[in-house]
Amino acid sequence: MARLAGLVIYETLGCFCQKVYRYDPGLYTIYNRCKHAAANSSPTESSNITGLYAAATPVPSPHPCFKPWSYIPDGIMPIFWRVVYWTSQFLTWILLPFMQSYARSGGFSITGKIKTALIENAIYYGTYLLIFGAFLIYVAVNPHLHLEWNQLQTIGIAAANTWGLFLLVLLLGYGLVEIPRSYWNGAKRGYLLMKTYFKAAKLMTEKADAEETLEDVMEEVRKVNESIKYNHPLRKCVDTVLKKCPLEYQEKMGRNMDDYEDFDEKHNTYPSEKSLVKLHKQVIYSVQRHRRTQVQWQILLEQAFYLEDVAKNETSATCQFVHTFQSPEPENRFIQYFYNPTVEWYWECLLRPWFYRVLAVVLSIFSVIVVWSECTFFSTAPVLSLFAVFIQLAEKTYNYIYIEIACFLSIFFLSICVYSTVFRIRVFNYYYLASHHQTDAYSLLFSGMLFCRLTPPLCLNFLGLTHMDSSISHQNTQPTAYTSIMGSMKVLSFIADGFYIYYPMLVVILCIATYFSLGTRCLNLLGFQQFMGDNDMTSDLVDEGKELIRREKRKRQRQEEGENRRREWKERYGHSREDSTRNRNVHIDPKESNFSDISTNRSASKYTRANNRTERDRIELLQDAEPLDFNAETFTDDPLESESGRYQPGGRYLSMSRSRIFDDV
């Protein structure tokens, strides 16, 4: 998609320097018009044009246009456009819909998945074929219409671009307002934290629903697993379904398997292969959703903890950023050296809010320029589109670098506004782009279809804004390679002179609706909770999310405190016990020792045992503060398990058992 958008820039840059080297562009246009008029006029009229024809002879310009280093020869760009455009159309209308159905299918073989995908897309493909067939019949019956193959191709391209332009304006109207506003709100203190609390409350509800759905699906899998035994013909399908289940459920279901029973011994009703395909599809969806909510919950917790740290460190007098929880992953030494706590405090607490405000103002200016140009790009005399004004100024002076920068920034900002909206779209759980590699295959393919459909009309809209499309600007200029591939839209005058010109003006209404959050308010009235500052439901969800974050924070603090205490016990008492054990293992020959040494050792061992007993009692008192899992078979997390030997699997102290009560004597 980036290559397709980049071809527009190269096409815009190349059209200025292909045919007008060292000549003024205005005189060259007059020269071509006079030459065409003289060739098609009568002998009497040609004499009148001779003077103008001679006066319009191109003369060297004071600003020569040198051939740029990135100049593309004639005939190359049309080939590139044909390859890129038709491959993208093949992807968006044929291949990607088929891959969507294939990825969502629950079949157990490649042939089964292909069959399911073809059946699901039969209606999709049949609708387009029916419309196209009706149009061909209408053209063949009507005697006043004589369309050739090129004209039919142009009509098909116009239909695809019309559908893409319809989506483009909708997404562009949202992105032009929402992107600057998101950065401006990001600079407000506490806004991001309140929104994170709101997301936490909604995500917890979704997480609980995903867990409940997974439990229900796993219960169905368990019933199927118990009914279909090892020698059943559909057992391979059941094994395939079990492999998609989480490991804990696989272990539970594996324990209750009775492989010695034959499926013919009991006259039970067994599920069909079609029901297993449906169950397989449900398992894939429920497991993926459960995993996604778990990962998103952990990421949201980290984000909430970090925003709370930012709020606490804003009033810090030491100008050192202090984290409540350290990152589990070790940071790079280069980052630790340059992005130290002092730099982090100045960036998070002082510089970033002002940087976001400045960036929001710059993006707002770009948005105003785009809205103004979308509403006035059809005016050629005078030229009101700011994009066209900038390009024509560079055209007069042949400033190639300026043309590159202007075209790149323009199409880059348009692409961000359109494509960022695609990433924010969520249609329930049917289509949803989740971060951190948690998006399912169906949503990824659906986003790819949107990108393929939006890029050609985005390029066409950019050429219209810069007055490079002759069908929109109505100027006798050299056509670009893109418009030569698209064909002349004059075949459909109501699209070329109506829809392409006046429909982009709708972006003004969409920007106003986005600014006042009309879509958010409508969704909120329908029962879909949205983040709105002046709503009671939003306040309740923010309070609920705040309590959930506080609960998770206390839980993590207790875990870290327990780990720290265990680490301190290992460091403090682990070495002393190792030394005492090592001393006990030393063999002393009684013949080489005298009475004084023996008495000294006895007195030392006496006090050593007493001290060891005191230390062990202290450890037991401290260990009583830690919760014990009386249902566990082993205590693997206990630091004193392998060293002191004072616990047994039942959760009791070995020192309290009768058989070893005199071991210390």
UniProtKB/TrEMBL annotation:
InterPro entries: GPCR-associated_LMBR1, LMBR1-like_membr_prot
Disordered: annotated span: 552-612, 631-652
Alphabetical list of Pfam families matching this protein: LMBR1
Membrane topology: Multi-pass membrane protein
Biased segments, Basic and acidic residues type: 558-594
Location in or out of the cell: Membrane
Residues in coiled coil: 200-227
Polar residues bias (residue ranges): 595-611
Keywords: Coiled coil, Membrane, Transmembrane, Transmembrane helix
Cellular component terms per the entry's GO annotation: membrane
UniProt keyword Cell wall biogenesis/degradation present: no
Biological processes per GO annotation: adrenergic receptor signaling pathway
Keyword Coiled coil included in the entry's annotation: yes
Segments passing through the bilayer: 79-102, 122-141, 153-177, 354-371, 401-422, 442-463, 499-518
Family: Belongs to the LIMR family.
Protein name: LMBR1 domain-containing protein 2
Source organism (scientific name): Eschrichtius robustus
